[in-house]
Input
Amino acid sequence: MDYDAIIVGSGPNGLAAGIALQQQGISVLIIEAKDTIGGGMRSAELTLPGFTHDICSAIHPMAAASPFFRTLPLESHGLEYIYPTINAAHPFDNGEAAVLAGSLAETMHYLGNDANAYESLFKPMVSDWPAIELDVLSPIGIPRSPFAFIRFGLHAIQSAHAISRRFSTEKAKGLWAGMTAHSLLPLTNVASAAIGLVLIAVGHRHGWPLPRGGSQRIAAALASYFKSLGGKIETGFTVSALSQLPSSRAVLLDVTPRQLLQIAGHKLSAIYKWQLGRYRYGMGVYKIDWALDDPIPFTAEACRTAGTVHLGNTFREIENSEALTWRGKHVKNPFVLLAQQSLFDSSRAPFGKHTAWAYCHVPHGSTEDMTAAVEGQIERFAPGFRERILSRHVFNSNEFEKYNPNYIGGDINGGAIDIRQLFTRPALRWSPYRTSTKGIYICSSSTPPGGGVHGMCGYHAAKRALRDVFNLRATPLS
Output
């Protein structure tokens, strides 16, 4: 059977692209290499029977905030978000913690002398977010609210280190370091502040929720809605060349530049292939899932009711850790991002038991065993943690790439999001989603706005294909 459009890859962007096309009556087939859909939205019993672990993504502020996902009836297709008492907590060696709470006021309560500095930076941004979210989560263009967008941009273009100077206390600086370290960049890099600003603004507007039952439920809800529109999904089909695909008018690939070259290189221009070949990938991750006998015994009370916990102590320690990792070194005390979903979702573990999910950053392609380092950081802020471990499952960077080929060298952001690739992602073109060949598009996190479960890369790629190939317009986002 022939289709109007074929999408390769069923991650959040592949599914979003399929939905955006199918909404306009375009017949779409989504092809997935693995037996289950989802890309970075998969869950499985990785440790012991009855313990459900998120294999890749776990906490979903960007899914809840996505301007495209918010237009979809995902609740009626089985998706339910759970909102932890505290979005994220950041403990320190003295037993205290800083907190990203739902409200500005509650967050300020934890920041002491830096409460006013925090309010001065984030109150305007949180207020402006509804006006600028589409511009922030889109390729560069004419902003809808120029003054608000410029206010955001003047902060976002700075380094995380530069923004940290606005604060005087270790609490505020540490909280900020944990937010910006999601960028997988050295905190001294230009524009390393951007992701931290977005995560905090989104946290105050939409929270940092987790899906009941696991991240797979997001993929299942998107797929269910896509199929309700008439879309088709085929799993267990690895695409290594365009010639394997059925006939169609458009092909959208939810892959990174390296796979795009492998699959469609013979169809692409020499200059475009040259650009793709120069695309750079960033740091990798080392991931651990645990089955636990009890909750993690954090010393800081706030950490016991937080969905996410950032472990790294002070800004200086995290900045140093990320800089060394970027330069290819393995550090003794890495920055660790940890989620404790079972505190809020009892379906994740047998009665009275718990799960935990964490990763640290490592050099690109690392095969180093970082288990002791990661567990040491948790034990540092939660003495007795190791005694509660029933089982663990680990992924090094190479194993992560084998599991999901889009995670090149363990890079979960689809490529370094530094100043050199912020506006030319994945190549310098008028539209980042078009390739050099008509009808072939790239719709992965290697395009704007980058990594995260938000589907906006897929939506924008589909929007471009609708105009170019089908002379149609995508459903507008308000």
Remarks:
- The chain has a mean pLDDT of 97.
- The longest helix spans residues 115-136.
- The two ends are 35 Å apart (CA to CA).
